[in-house]
Design goal:
Shape: globular
Number of helices: 3
Strand content: 25-35%
Structural class: alpha+beta
Order of helices and strands: HHEEEEEEEEH
Largest sheet: 6 strands, antiparallel
Number of strands: 8
Distance between the termini: 43 Å
Length: 155
Amino acid sequence: MKAFFQLCALAGVALLAACASSPKLSDAQKLALYQANAGAPVKDFTYLGNLTGWQPIGDSALAVWTKPKEAYLLDLGGPCRDLDYAPAINITNMMGRVSTLDRVRVLGGSGGVGRVSCRIVSIRPLDVSKLKAAEAELRKADVEARQEESAAPAN
């Protein structure tokens, strides 16, 4: 039984090491991926005060999930300071609707005093299933590339 737990621990460490060694997409690559899986701009979306998730994409775009399979790409008017490091965000809304007149506020962390909210300039619905498939394809291609590198003879 002890050997089983040691094997599981070793497998977990190996998995974490593999994840840590995989290259991270640049903000520009991530933005291109999200834009490729976003629809035409919409006027607004329903927001009941709860996000199921959010992902900063550089300092001028943000993906927000209002439901597990419903997400939007928000383009922000210029750089949104500390967005990449924010532990939480707040989105203004009017009667449960977020539009391009609304703003994203970065919450928490040090230096929150004097922080300016960021205006939403564009809202595009994301095709979540296509986005996940594209991300999986990128991961698969990355794994294959690393396997080819490790299989190539050293000079």
